[in-house]
Amino acid sequence: MLNKITEEIFENWILENGPSLARFIYKQVHNKELSEDLYQEVLISAYLNLDKFEERANFKSWIYKIAINKCRDFWRKQKSAQKFWEEKVYHYEIENTIPLPEEYVVTRSSEDEMIDRINELPVIYREPLLLFYFKDKSLLEISSTKKIPISTVKTRMRRARNQLKEKSLFNETLAN
């Protein structure tokens, strides 16, 4: 158990320096309620570990180190919780959703339309697009398969996309 002198010194230090410690914690987290909670955690942790305090260290630096560690713990928890909501929950919802039948029909018909438009392109532009987007080939794989430089593959794909854009704009104009 803690001796009376150590508890008394601790209490006096808190009475004198507690407000500056509280301000320090607030400056770290920028939230009043959170800083008050962390302040209480720091005091409890320091009190419970008074027997581990080494006299060769400065009491103020020891307790401020506890405060910094409590703030870091909070930031780690907050960061992992944020990652959970940004990554895991979001991906879970996307991966486990089954498209509605009407969504499937619309997606499928638009894919069919796109393939029809791609098939209207000249062969030199059509092949790289089909290999890249529908066969999941990389630009390097397309280049080696077709025995053409990678820059040529990129150029043909860019020209093919531009022609597709022009056709879709032309079709939209006709529809209006």
Which descriptors would you attach to this protein?
Rna Polymerase Sigma Factor, Chain: A, Arc Repressor Mutant, subunit A, about 80% helix, disordered N terminus
Notes on the structure:
With 176 residues, the chain is an all-alpha fold. It folds into two domains: 4-95, Rna Polymerase Sigma Factor, Chain: A, CATH 1.10.1740.10; 101-175, Arc Repressor Mutant, subunit A (Orthogonal Bundle), CATH 1.10.10. It contains seven helices and no strands. The protein has helices at residues 4-29, 32-48, 59-95, 101-119, 123-134, 139-146, 150-175. Helix 1 (4-29) packs across helix 3 (59-95), helix 2 crosses helix 3 and helix 6 (139-146) crosses helix 7. It is rod-shaped and about 90 Å long. The chain starts with a helix and ends with a helix. The relative contact order is 0.06. Mean pLDDT is 80; it is low at 1-5 and 89-94.
Report a brief summary of the structure.
With 176 residues, the chain is mostly helical. The chain contains seven helices and no strands. Helix 2 crosses helix 3.
List the domain count as a whole number. Answer: 2
- Spans of 5+ residues with little confidence (pLDDT < 50)? 1-5, 89-94
Largest sheet: none
Task: Provide the CATH topology of the largest domain.
Answer: Rna Polymerase Sigma Factor, Chain: A
- Kindly state the mean pLDDT as a whole number? 80
Instruction: Give the % helix.
Output: over 70%
Count of alpha and pi helical runs:
7
State the order of secondary-structure elements, H for helix, E for strand.
HHHHHHH
Q: Which shape, going by the Cα principal axes?
A: rod-shaped
Oligomeric state of shown chains: single chain
Count of beta strands: 0
The CATH superfamily of the largest domain is known as: RNA polymerase sigma factor, region 2, helix turn helix motif
Q: How far from one another are the termini?
A: 87 Å
Structural class: mainly alpha
Return the CATH class of the largest domain: Mainly Alpha
- Level-2 CATH architecture of the largest domain: Orthogonal Bundle
What is the percentage of strand-forming residues?
under 5%
| Radius of gyration, in angstroms, nearest whole number | 33 Å
